[in-house]
Structures are given as structure tokens and as C-alpha cells.
Design a protein that fits this description.
Layout (H helix, E strand, L loop, with lengths): L2 H8 L3 H9 L3 H11 L1 H11 L6 H17 L11 H20 L8 H11 L10 H9 L4 H11 L4 H8 L3 H23 L1
Helix pairs in contact: 1-3, 7-9, 9-10, 9-11, 10-11
């Protein structure tokens, strides 16, 4: 899309943009999904979603989701926020639920992995005070199964590269998941100690 058309669409109101999308205007669709929401999809592909291979796949998935049933979901937008905010919230919720639905509910660790977890647990900075039983109980309470998988993999002595390969995501995503898991563990344990 050329700069002149991008400028034209960027000056339209949210209501005008929504009307064009509902009318299946090809240029408006291209503008919203490939220009206006480019940073949104970059953010989602780097931090939220690990199973799809590219930003283009994200755009395609989200377009199909949003436009299905004659744009039923977009018709729910009530202009109480900006269209950008609404799209961000809907996209993140969609991709998070999609990711969680595709993950196994439990993580199976063999005896060797469990031994490695026990050895490494004492070195893990946020949980050094926990007994091993408390550690496992706290990990089981983690709501996000991807965070639980990444944390258990690293505690089992696996490299971030190996965990990323097993989970089908980037190494950076593994580090982000571990960081979130550690933060969630702190909250779980803080509630237990209070």
C-alpha cells in the first residue's frame, strides 16, 4: 500500500474504518491488518504466540477469526475505546486461548528429569527457601501451562534451546515464560506465607 493511501486511511475515524471493514473493503482490510496493526502483530509474535511461524500467519489467523460469520466479532465493538485498543485485547485473548488449547495439560517428567529438578531446585533464585514439596505444589498451581512447561524443563536441567525445541517456540519465548512463571510463583508463595 502506498504512502498516500496509508495517510488517507490513517485520518479516518474508527467508525469509518469499521464501516469499511464490515463492507469488506480490500484496501481498508490491508491497511488495518498490515499497516495499522503491524506493531501489534510483531508484539504478539514475539511475546504471546510461539506455535505459528511468522507474523503473516498471525495476521491470517486473526483476520479469519475476526471476519468469520460476516464480521460478527467486529460488530460487537461498541466504540467505548479506540479500535486499536479493542483489536489488541481481542487479538491477545484469541492467541492466548489458541495457544493454551494446543498445549498438553500435564508435563510428564521421567525419573532422570525429576532427579535433575531436585538437584537444581536449590540453585533457583526465587525458590531457594521452599522445600521440594512446596516447590512442586506451587508449580502445579501455575495457571499457564506454557509457563509450567518452560519452568519444569529448565529445572530438569534442560537448556533453554532444548526446551524451546520441545515446545515449538523461540528461546526468547522460553526466557519470557520462565520469567512470568517465577513472578507467578512469588505471588503463590506470598499468599501461602501471609
Amino acid at each position: 500500500m502506498n504512502e498516500k493511501r496509508i495517510t488517507y486511511y490513517s485520518h479516518l475515524s474508527d467508525k469509518d474504518i469499521v464501516k469499511l471493514l464490515l463492507a469488506n473493503d480490500a484496501e481498508a482490510i490491508e491497511y488495518v491488518f498490515f499497516c495499522r496493526c503491524e506493531n501489534l502483530f510483531s508484539h504478539i509474535s514475539n511475546t504471546v504466540v510461539c506455535t505459528l511461524n511468522s507474523k503473516d500467519e498471525l495476521v491470517n489467523e486473526f483476520f479469519l477469526y475476526l471476519s468469520s460469520d460476516d464480521w460478527r466479532r467486529l460488530r460487537q465493538f461498541q466504540f467505548k475505546s479506540s479500535i486499536d485498543t479493542w483489536l489488541t485485547i481481542v487479538a491477545i485473548r484469541f492467541f492466548k486461548s489458541k495457544e493454551e488449547a494446543e498445549l498438553p495439560k500435564t508435563v510428564e517428567l521421567n525419573e532422570q528429569d525429576l532427579c535433575a529438578v531436585k538437584k537444581k531446585a536449590d540453585d533457583f533464585d526465587i525458590i531457594y527457601e521452599l522445600s521440594r514439596v512446596e516447590l512442586y505444589e506451587a508449580i502445579e498451581k501455575l495457571k499457564n501451562s506454557r509457563e509450567r512447561c518452560a519452568l519444569l524443563g529448565v529445572l530438569a536441567g534442560k537448556s533453554a534451546d532444548k526446551v524451546a525445541g520441545e515446545m515449538g517456540c523461540s528461546v526468547m519465548a522460553v526466557y519470557n515464560l520462565i520469567k512470568k512463571a517465577k513472578k507467578a510463583l512469588k505471588k503463590i508463595m506470598k499468599g501461602k506465607w501471609e
